[in-house]
Specification:
3 domains; 22 helices; three-stranded antiparallel β-sheet; 65% helix; Arc Repressor Mutant, subunit A; globular; mainly alpha; two-stranded antiparallel sheet; Serine Threonine Protein Phosphatase 5, Tetratricopeptide repeat
């Protein structure tokens, strides 16, 4: 038995003969179970996804569709024997087939393997060739199917670019010019595609066409998206003009959405600038918002979600630096979450929800906005724990921390959050979140009046800051030390009031350049 959804929905018997799946509703039920990737889908969810306005007997109709599908998929199953393909689980149904017997699952697994190991490039080409059209092509008018089509189309584009990059990096790919030219013409906003086309032209000995392509890319990015070309395109143009462009690149590890480690995207750069503080922080937030707006103009929900969620900069301050900009980011998140829907990729939804929690921290938020931010923090944490992604959980916990200033008496709870952040970041080598964990525990211990513990965390935070090049940390610890010195100036043998005043003046000086 094989089921294909990368095109119109179809099923094939082991001998290759097609299965008569019945009408459109039958195929949609099967497709919806495929999209769940082996997980149970409740009856209520299936009814909601099949009908905008469910009829009175929707559940009965759904059961009829499932029964017909079971007969079609397992025609030789003896009576009273339990089904093996569409099984009943709790309050719903699940599809039980090996992943290699479902084309979309096989495609996703092949892409994941190629990200880790370039030697899988041949299998990736085969998986791309298996696409027969848009995913779930005959399931029209269903929001869940549209979300899946959007997600899978993004993965298909990523896979095509990953395959081309692997071939070019390994010394092959001279014949990719036509393929990449068509790819760029159809998806002109994808900056990596322009770089790949330029490299393929260069390998084919067409230097003049390379420069013309790079100029077209620059014009498109600047005029239509308002973005300067990234480092990859700029360096390639410089190397070609200087005659130093290598025909091959060293084979490297691959990660994430089809992007080779090394060149920084606009958001990657913004994250780095944010940690530097000062004017760099202001510029980073401006660049980040510009990148979000550019992504929204493409209409690509997955791209927009990744760009929004990539800015996982640790945040300690309990009020927003720029409330209006934060509102603009939250509004973009809400539009993207609505577009992705509740069945959207869990990791993207978790990052978007954590972003809401982190950005919604202005004192002038309404009660409704605060409730929504607190709910977003809880949902992000729950999703991150389920996904077992340490970096994602650290970002989610940052949101939990920032939503814990709504009433007095929560310092102990914040300390527990800080302790988990610190442990998580230490075990999984997330140095910037380790700094955040120390600062959270410093703040909490200070609020609880435990100045010895707070001083210990301040010292540890300063040591971490020296290795992670985080210049804002000494600004915060300087103010704590002034507060601690003032508190101890009332103790017998403690520092004088003049010493405490000097500490405050030092702290104020550090703030001027922060």
């Amino acid at each position: 038995m094989r089921i294909d959804v990368l095109g119109v929905v179809r099923a094939l018997h082991d001998d290759g003969n097609p299965v008569d799946l019945g009408g459109p509703r039958h195929r949609e039920v099967l497709a919806r179970l495929v999209a769940a990737e082996g997980q149970m889908v409740t009856t209520d969810t299936l009814v909601h996804d099949l009908w905008t306005d469910p009829p009175a007997r929707a559940v009965g109709a759904l059961r009829t569709f499932v029964a017909a599908l079971r007969r079609a998929l397992e025609p030789d199953r003896p009576p009273r024997n339990p089904p093996r393909v569409i099984v009943t689980e709790g309050p719903g149904y699940a599809l039980c087939l090996p992943r290699e017997d479902v084309d979309v699952h096989q495609f996703q697994d092949t892409l994941a393997r190629a990200r880790r190991n370039p030697d899988a490039v041949t299998d990736l080409g085969t998986a791309l060739a298996a696409w027969r059209g848009p995913a779930y092509a005959d399931v029209t008018g269903s929001p869940w199917a549209q979300r899946e089509r959007t997600r899978l189309e993004e993965l298909r584009l990523e896979a095509a670019e990953l395959r081309a990059r692997i071939l070019l990096d390994s010394g092959e790919g001279g014949g990719l010019v036509a393929e990449l030219g068509a790819h760029v013409a159809e998806h002109p906003w994808r900056e990596p595609a322009w770089e790949l086309l330029a490299r393929a032209l260069y390998r084919a000995g067409r230097q003049a066409d390379v420069l013309a392509t790079l100029r077209r890319a620059r014009t498109m990015l600047v005029d239509q998206l308002g973005l300067d070309p990234g480092a990859g395109l700029r360096h390639l143009e410089t190397d070609i003009l200087n005659g130093t462009a290598p025909l091959e690149r060293a084979r490297t590890a691959w990660t994430g959405p089809g992007v080779r480690l090394g060149p920084r995207t606009t958001v990657d750069l913004a994250r780095t600038l944010a940690l530097a503080g000062g004017d760099a922080l202001v510029h980073s937030r401006r660049d980040r918002l510009a990148a979000i707006q550019a992504a929204q103009r493409t209409g690509d929900l997955s791209l927009t979600a990744r760009i929004i969620g990539a800015y996982d900069v640790p945040a300690i301050w309990s009020r927003a630096d720029d409330p209006e900009q934060s509102r603009a980011v939250v509004a973009a998140v809400e539009r993207t979450l609505t577009g992705l829907g509740p069945e959207g990729p869990a990791d993207l939804r978790a990052r978007l929800l954590a972003t809401v929690a982190v950005e919604s921290r202005s004192a002038d938020l309404s009660g409704t906005e605060l409730k929504q931010a607190q709910q977003a923090a809880r949902q992000a944490e729950e999703l991150a724990r389920h996904l077992a992604d340490p970096a994602l959980l650290a970002f989610a916990l940052n949101g939990v921390f920032l939503q814990s200033f709504t009433r007095p008496g929560l310092a102990a709870s914040r300390d527990r959050t800080g302790a988990e952040l610190l442990d998580l970041a230490t075990r999984h080598e997330l140095p910037n979140f380790a700094v955040l964990g120390r600062l959270v525990r410093l703040q909490s211990a200070s609020a609880l009046g435990d100045l010895d513990a707070a001083t210990s965390h301040a010292n540890a935070a300063d040591q971490l800051a020296a290795t992670t090049e985080a210049p804002l940390v000494p600004v915060l610890t300087a103010w704590f030390r002034a507060r601690a010195t003032a508190a101890r100036s009332t103790e017998p043998g403690g520092p004088t009031a003049a010493t405490a005043a000097a500490h405050y003046r030092t702290a104020e000086d550090t703030l001027r350049t922060a």
